[in-house]
Design goal:
- Helix content is 52%, strand content 0%.
- By secondary structure, the protein is mainly alpha-helical.
- Helix 3 runs antiparallel to helix 8 and helix 7 packs antiparallel against helix 8.
- It starts with a helix and ends with a helix.
Length: 224
């Protein structure tokens, strides 16, 4: 299967999960993240460059297929552009069917949104689940459907509230790093690294928890 055949396997239709009974608990409410749309402006700095140590490159012998077949196993620029375009098309189709800024709670977008809200509500790192019993049931049930498994990786583009929050937090991370570096004269690189890590972990916590809960739900379903 080539790249285009793989991407065309995405199904754009809406998927509605089984409605949870009232005694399992009421539907989670949604909140707006429009306040997070504020653009953050940073001072323009001189262009920076990175260099790679080519002498440290390591080569590996190809034992999987003949050398003449190698080009057919690599994606070219056209393939990558097709992936990007198709992903954007899939995300827009999901938004149009399942709701944009306020997704239907009983759809893929709604379950993703509720999961992200639960992860965003935690102010400290935890190893256990932050989801309610109802939310865990809905998330696992979602990934039992092949159509939703095909949407893995589209969460940031397809679910508008999640997309808005992640965009804001990426800008916030840049601001934190830039302001921390300029805040004082750091003589100890390790100390500065620890401070940066601590400050950035609070911003990225929701995304880390979100990714972990999605992966755990997908893994649980694979063993059903």
């Amino acid at each position: 299967m080539n790249a285009r055949e793989m991407i065309n396997s995405f199904l754009f239709g809406s998927y509605e999960i089984r409605k949870i009974s009232d005694d399992e608990c009421s539907l989670s409410s949604t909140i707006s993240v429009e306040s997070q749309h504020k653009a953050l402006s940073l001072p323009i700095t001189a262009e920076r460059r990175i260099r790679f140590n080519l002498s440290a490159n390591v080569s590996h012998d190809n034992t999987l297929y003949p050398e003449e077949d190698s080009p057919s196993h690599w994606l070219n620029a056209e393939d990558y552009q097709y992936f990007k375009t198709s992903n954007s098309t899939a995300a827009r189709a999901i938004q149009n069917v399942e709701g944009g800024d306020d997704p239907n709670p009983l759809t893929y977008s709604g379950v993703m949104h509720n999961t992200y809200l639960a992860c965003s509500s935690i102010g400290f790192d935890v190893e256990t689940s932050v989801l309610s019993t109802k939310d865990e049931i809905e998330l696992k049930q979602l990934f039992r459907h092949d159509r939703c498994m095909d949407r893995i990786g589209l969460e940031r583009k397809a679910v508008k509230p999640v997309s808005a929050s992640k965009t804001f937090k990426r800008r916030e991370l840049v601001r934190i790093i830039y302001s921390t570096q300029l805040a004082e004269n750091w003589n100890d690189f390790d100390t500065m690294s620890d401070v940066l890590r601590s400050r950035c972990e609070g911003v990225s916590r929701a995304s880390r928890l979100f990714a972990r809960h999605l992966a755990q739900a997908q893994l649980a379903v694979s063993y059903d």
